Each structure stands twice: as C-alpha cells, then as structure tokens.
Structures
1.
Amino acid sequence: MNSVVVHYQEVALKGKNRPWFISRLVANLRAAVADLDVRSVRPLVGRIELTLGPTAKYDEVRDRIQHVFGVANCSRAGRSGRSLDEMAQAILADARDLEPESFRVSVRRADKRYPLRSPEVEREVGGRIKQARGWKVNLDNPALTVGIEILNDHAFYFFGKDKGPGGLPTGSGGRVACLLSGGIDSPVATWRMMKRGCQALLVHFHSYPFLSRASQEKARELAALLTRYQLHSRLFLVAFGEIQRQVVLSVPAALRVVVYRRLMLRIAERIAKDQGAGALVTGEVIGQVASQTLENMSVIGSVASLPVLRPLVGMDKEEIVAQAERIGTYEISIVPDQDCCQLFTPKHPATRARLDEVLAAEGLLPVEELVAGAVAAAEVEEFAFPAAATPAGEGTRG
C-alpha cells in the first residue's frame, strides 16, 4: 500500500471556484511533505493521491497531512483493478496480518458508469473476504471498515480513515495580522483564522528591556508551532515598553489599558497594511478581563480602519483552553513570563471607557511619532516548516 488518499469536504462545496481551492490544497500538501519520500501529490476525481516512495513512513506523512487545513481525512491506500476479484484479492493480501472482531465494506463510486452499484460491490467483496478469512460482518459498529473507491481506471482500498483538521486551504482566505501575546487566547484565535484559509502575520508586543525577553521566546515558540499549520510565518517583535512609559506620564491611570490597546492596534494596522493584510485579529473575549467589556472593545476597535476580527469573542475560557490543548499551544502559553500587559498596569482600569475621554487623553501623546517609531524598529523573523523547505537566510526558524 504505497498511496495516501486525501479527502476534502468544505472545498468540494466551492462550485466554479473549486479547482482553485483544490490547487491550493495540493500545493500546501506538497510543501508539507517536501522533506519526506513522497513521489507525487496529484488531484484525482474528488480526492488527492500522495504516492509514497520506499523510505516514506505513513505515520510521518499522516502527521504532516493532519496539520494541513482543507483536509477532511486521509487513509493509507492500495491500488487494484476494478473487477470484484481483483479488489478482493488485493485487500486480502494487505490484510493478512489483521484479525478484527468484525468488519464491513464501504464503497464509493467516483465513476458512476461502473456496472454495479455501491451496495452490490459491498456485498460481493465483503462476501469474498468473509469466505476467505471468516471475519464477522457488522454493518452498524464494525471494528474495521474496509473502504473502496472506484475511479475510472482503477480502485483504491484502505482500512479506516484518519481525521484531518478540516477548514479551507491556507492562502485561500487572504492575509490577516494577528496580535499574538504569550497567553492562551491569541494563539487559538490565530489558529482559527488559519483554519478559515487565512495566512497569518504574527505581531507580538514586548516590554524589553523593562522586562525580560521571556515573552519574546514564547512568541517564537508559538510561531514555530503555528507554522506547522500554515508552513510559513512572519513574526514582528515590537518594543512597547517605552510607549507604555510615556502613556503612564500623560494618561489618567484608569484609561491607560484602553490607550495601550489602541496604540497596539494602530501599530499592528500599520504593519498589516505594509504587508498587504486585510484585517486585524485579536484574542479578545467579551467580559474575560476588565479591558474586554463591550464598551471598551468598541472604543479600542474604533481606532482601526481595517476590520478587527475576534474569533473567540463568544467562547468561554474552558472552551478556549480545550482547543489550545488540542492544537498544542497550551503547554507553551502557560509557561510563566513577563509580558507587556503586566507593565505599568493600573489597579483599577476603566471598564466603560468613553471615546471622548480617551481622545482627550491621547491628545497629550505624540501618537504618530510613537506608532511610526515602533513600526520602524520592529524586528522581523521568518519561520518555515518543514525545515528542509526553509529559505536560506539569517533569522529563519523551522
């Protein structure tokens, strides 16, 4: 069995645009397995086939595929002729080491001209397997499902399916700039936008040298992990400590957090526009902290001309933590660090800031100078996965 059959789901619903989405998915799969012995990645009718070379290990290939958005599921598969006997013989040859408690055969016909209907093929091939191996048939809850897909000139067969991440292929949904802290929420928000096909630029604000470099290191670790899903990432490290110090000198304590957030959005938006991104993304959740009331979020978001997307806005913490654990960011996010949110933060921030008061407070700051300086001084690092596909150059991480 030297093929891997990849199925997609949402991509199949794209009508006339479907070929473009499939081509993006094929390109992303090809890039994801670039350093493995995969001989070809090609679209077929309703599916994609990866052909494995002699040194390719299915477990490794599967792990890469399960990080590629747009994939509904994948299976290690074999090829056979289209006759009932050919299919049954090939399946029996590759199933010789299997002893399931029960089984069933599930057939899909990509070629509707095939003379037998799917249930007929299931009965005939299933009967041959039962006669040869004595396996018990269970149509409702089988221990093993033998899949067969009949194409125009051959058939695929496989034993079960491995679930993919779903969503849309990375690069099909445009580019967004994600404000990435070292916490639990923003990496999940970023991942959810990636799942919708967006290529995510990562913008991290830190307060070095007022605080340690720990938050920068966490941002790099999160960027490396998220890059497994989108294959290439650009991380902007923005020094924010001096800006916070100037805010403390001029802005009333209760309004400082709102002003910090508005300055972050201004800086992120400037970077986003420079990089061709069409929206900003935050990990904000209504009511989670004092700055994330509906009133404050409205005042903060009003500073941006680009849309501000908040993928987690209606989720609770338990849901976000569960998703962070599933995608692998949680263990990084809970490592203690000193991020810019801890610096110069008032004890009693405003929970219902008024726009007129915030604008008056910002009038005491050289806002354009602060934003332009932060953007100009931002450090940029590139991340790529797999490492074999990493472009040469200093600052690139895999």
2.
Amino acid sequence: MTRMRLWPNSSVFILLSCFVLLLGGCGKKGPPKPPLKKTLPKVKNLQTAVVDAGVSLTWTMDSSDEDAAGFNVYRSKAQPKKNDCPGCPRDFEVITTVRVKAGETQFQLVDPDVEGKGIFYYKVTPFDKRDRPGPDSNESKVIVE
C-alpha cells in the first residue's frame, strides 16, 4: 500500500522559503537621505550705492570658506504698475559672475548696465566648484534718478 502525500516536496520548500524571506527582511527602514554636503556660507552685508559709472555693489564673506568658487550677481527692477510690497517675490536675472581668488574676503562690483530711472534690487548668491548655488544674500535696494 502506498501513502499519498498531502503536500509535494517542492511546494513545502517554496512556502518555507517565502516565510524565511519575509522574516529576514525586518529592520529599521526609512526614506533615503541625501549625502552630506557642506553648505556655503551666506554673503554678508550686501550694500548698493549710485555712482557715476552705474551702481556700486559691495559685500563680504568669511575667509574660512574655501569651497566658494564665485558669486552670481542678480538684478531686479521694480515694476511701476505693480505695488512694490516688502517680502513679495521679485523676478531677478543674472547680470554677471564674479570669481573668488584665494584669501579674498571683500568684493566690489560696478553694474554699468542700469537702464533708465527707477528702483533696482540686487542680491548675490555664492556657488561652489561644481556650480551648486549657496544661500541668497540680503536684497539691497537702490533708487536711480
């Protein structure tokens, strides 16, 4: 007399393998984290002034940071038809790029391309050697008459 098996050997093996895989997958899981990267320091005290040649911009940065390769300088002109409200977003455009020399901490630039009269806003953003931007500086306002 032969006995009949309820479960074939291969089915038992597959069930046990699935059970082991489910239990073996436990552990602490979470969303992926971006790799740690050093953030560039913020530009300090951006100031603007009207000069004969255009608009003069001056700013400083900590000398301890060697990751900054340069700065992008942005300009925005206030729209006369829109109400100029503090804190409202502005449309800035890049007007030039300034490269950093070793040990340089104070920067100065003259924007000769100011067209017409009005209120202009400037900001400066550092970037690293891979062109990754840092935090924006303060916005500096100048009135050209």
3.
Amino acid sequence: MRSSTSNSDMTRWLGIGLVALAIWAVGATVYERQLRNVGHRPSVIDTPQLWAQERSRIYGDQTMVFIGASRTLYGIDLATVKVVMPHTRPLMLAMDGRYPLATLKALAGDPEFNGTLVVDLDAQGLSSHHWDDQAIYNRYFEDEWTLSWSLHRWLLSLFQRYWTLLNPRLGWLPMSKSWLRMAPPPFVAHDAISTRREGYLDFDRVDEAGLAQMFRADLASELQKHPPPPADDWLKTLSPVSDWVRRIEARGGKVIFFVPPVSGYQAALIEAAYPRPFYWQRFIDHYQLHGWHYLDDDELLDVILLPDDSHVDGSQKDAYTRRLLSNLQREGLL
C-alpha cells in the first residue's frame, strides 16, 4: 500500500513538473518572439570566460592569433582567414575598448605559444597608460580558468547563440522596469558576437553619424587627459615591447603589428597627436619589427567604408580581411 501511494505521489509531482515546464516554455517562446519583433537578436555575451576559452586554444605553430581592440574584434572574418590561408588556425583574442599590450606580454611569457600573432595597435595604444588595458582578462586566465568553467561557458554560449532572452540586459527584471516606466526600453544593439568571439556590426540599425561624433569626442577627451609624450621619450619606454616580441620569435613564432583604418575627424586627430613618421613608424623601424599601416594602401578607404569613421560594417568583413591579408602577404609579413 505504501509503495502504491509513493508511486502515485511521484506521478503527481512529475505531472506538475511537466506542466510547469510547458508553461515556462510557452512564456519563454512568447517573450523571445516579442524581443525579436522589436529588433533584438541573439548574441553570445562576451565575458572573461569566453575570452579565456579562446585563449586556451592558441597552441600550435599553425595558429594565427588576432589581438587588438574593437576594430579587429568586429573587422576580422575568421572564416575568410581560413580560406585565404588554409593551413592556419585563426583565433580571436581582441577586446572591445581595450588595447592589447598586456596580452602580448602574457603570450611572450607563455613558453608554449609559438604561433603567429597579428597585433592591431596604433601609436596611442602603445603609450604606457594603455599597457594594462587587457591585464584583468589575462589574470583571470592564469588564476581562475578551469575545466568546469570551460564546460559552463560552452553550454552558455550554445544557448545564447539562439536565445535573445538570455542577454542579461533583456532579462525579465530590466524589461519589467521598462514596462512599468521605471526605466527606458533597452536599446536595440547593432553588434553581435559569435561563439568564437568574432564580432559583427550592422550599421543599418544605428545612427552612423551619431556614433562617429561620439568616437570623435571620446578621442579628443582621451588626448586631452593623456597628451602624447615627446616622441623620444615615448620610443624609449617601448623597449620592453621589443623584448616581448623577441621572446616569441625565439620560439619560432612571429609578431606582426598593424594599424587598422580610421577616417574623418578620428584620422585627423590621431595623426595630429601622433604623427606617423615620428611615432608608429619610428617604433617599427627603431626596434626592427614587422609592421604595416593602413596608409600604405592608398586605395583602401576607397574600397572599405567606415560608417562611424572607425569600424567596418559586417557586410564588408570578408573584403576587408582579404585586403588586409593581401597587404601583409605583399609586404612579405605573412
């Protein structure tokens, strides 16, 4: 009699659980559809865990690792790299809004890394106050990254890839505040990230001129806060960077620096602050490094458009990546 009662209770609770699951699934589906109807779309959320997952895959002499900031994160098409250079294994470690010298330093200190490192870095990013921009991610990888975190991140990415509602800023709480008029509606993003940390920008979803003005103001503020040091002093501080490069090269690796394209006021501001002949080019020549600058391609900005004066639209990622690789190959850097 007791066994029969236990089975009955188990069946009842199982039924309740299935009904609850069905209600949740219906609610989640309706909410997902509502989010998509107002323009939101799925995107993997970039976190230190997602970065560390890619960081753990950099080993082997066939890897080509891209580091830098947003212009590389959203500009380089990894599938195109694989097509153009089929024997390579491209990986993305660039970060939005963070210059990459901390990652260069960390990879120099990793005796197992001997691949090709493609470094998106202009003269401003070489200045010493930017050296630690990516340090927090590298410390996370060294001190906290584990196999269990890797599994957690893999599963999370799998679901975020398909479900818009898994974006924290589009969760029930922030949306409820919006419905109750306690907060404005979440903005419709023009960017998305893949499970491989490859970014995509859709400028049809945003005010291009407004973004260009914002980036111009941010750059002007940054240059006012951190004025360019005298060229000689700036160059002397970069000796450790050269040492990091030599350590990678001594293991059979290769480091290539490049400056991605900018246009409009941003190009004018950065060139006035850090004239190429006295800063970036002098860094490359003085320390005998491999380097390429977008101004070396006279027709680049006629072919590749930068809607916000800084970034490539997702529709041109393939063309931009092919042109960049072609320039690097033509110069004998790849």
